[in-house]
Amino acid sequence: MSRAQQKERTRKAIIEAAFSQLSAEKSFASLSLREVAREAGIAPTSFYRHFADMDELGLTLVDEAGLMLRQLMRQARQRIENNGSVISTSIETFMEFVTGNSNVFRLLLRERSGTSAAFRAAVAREIQHFSAELAHYLRKETACPDELAQLQAEAMVTLVFHTGADALDAPPEQYASLTSRTVTQLRWLAHGAASYGRNKVKS
After folding, report:
1. What is the CATH number of domain 54-201?
2. What distance in Å separates the CA atoms of residue 140 and residue 68, rounded to the nearest whole number?
3. Contact 179, 159 (CB under 8 A)
4. How far apart are CA 71 and CA 90, in angstroms?
5. Most buried pick, 16, 44, 135, 203, via CB within 10 A?
6. pLDDT tens across 35-51, in order?
7. In sequence order, what E strands does the chain have?
8. pLDDT for 3 beyond 90
9. Are 64 and 20 in contact (CB under 8 A)?
10. Of 3.30.559.10, 1.10.10.60, 1.20.140.10, 3.40.30.10, which CATH number belongs to 1-51?
């Protein structure tokens, strides 16, 4: 293994170590560099070969969390192409992400309204990326104007993130009802957006 490959492998180990220690009781702010280094199997001093400080690691975690979510939703759109329901498949995929990666999604929720301006901005960028991809999909599938597609995408993302937050603290037996409720709400939103678009064109 080359030195560059080893460095990248260690960097990934640090990221995974930090994610693994997040929980409902433990936020990123409460993590220590020593804890992360120990979990990653490296000396604390080695941490600085990969990140300037814990803040840089935290921002990287936000980027990684957003990327994971966007990649998963791209996979959902591939599932939709195999004759799946757009909204149902998307929400089921999202719920799989939240319940299977609760520490990752919890990071996004916490830092979205956290005390660090840099972290809030990073999460906002990830949500904007997520909304932009959804808006592009809506424009392609419904041929609606750019402005309406963006507004609809932002509303849908807000609703879905709210459901994700509810799912984090809900018992598993409530996941199905949460999913069903959100599917219905998103369908109302989609029908309303379509109706608004037609009326706006007429006016």
Report:
1. 1.10.357.10
2. 23
3. no
4. 12
5. 135
6. 999 999 999 999 999 99
7. none
8. no
9. no
10. 1.10.10.60
Whole-number Å distance between alpha carbons of 84 and 61: 32
Contact criterion met (CB below 8 Å) for 197 and 167: no
* 1-51 against 54-201: fold identical: no
Domain ranges of the chain: 1-51, 54-201
Could you tell me which of 105, 107, 138, 111 has the C-alpha nearest to residue 124? 111
Q: Which pLDDT tens digit goes with each residue over 126-157?
A: 999 989 988 988 888 877 888 888 999 999 99
Q: Which two tokens stand for residue 193?
A: 């957006």
Task: Tally the residues of the chain.
Answer: 203
Other beta carbons within 10 angstroms of residue 180's beta carbon come to 12
Half-sphere exposure at residue 79, Cβ-oriented, CA atoms within 13 angstroms: 17
Alpha-carbon gap, residue 145 to 157, rounded angstroms: 18
Nearest 5°: the CA angle 23, 24, 30 is 65
In one letter, which amino acid is 18? A
Residue 92: closest CA among 184, 173, 175, 7:
175
Question: pLDDT tens for residues 65-91?
Answer: 999 988 888 888 777 776 667 888 889
Q: For 109-119, what is the mean pLDDT?
A: 89
Average pLDDT score, the chain: 89
Place of tokens 């932009």: 132
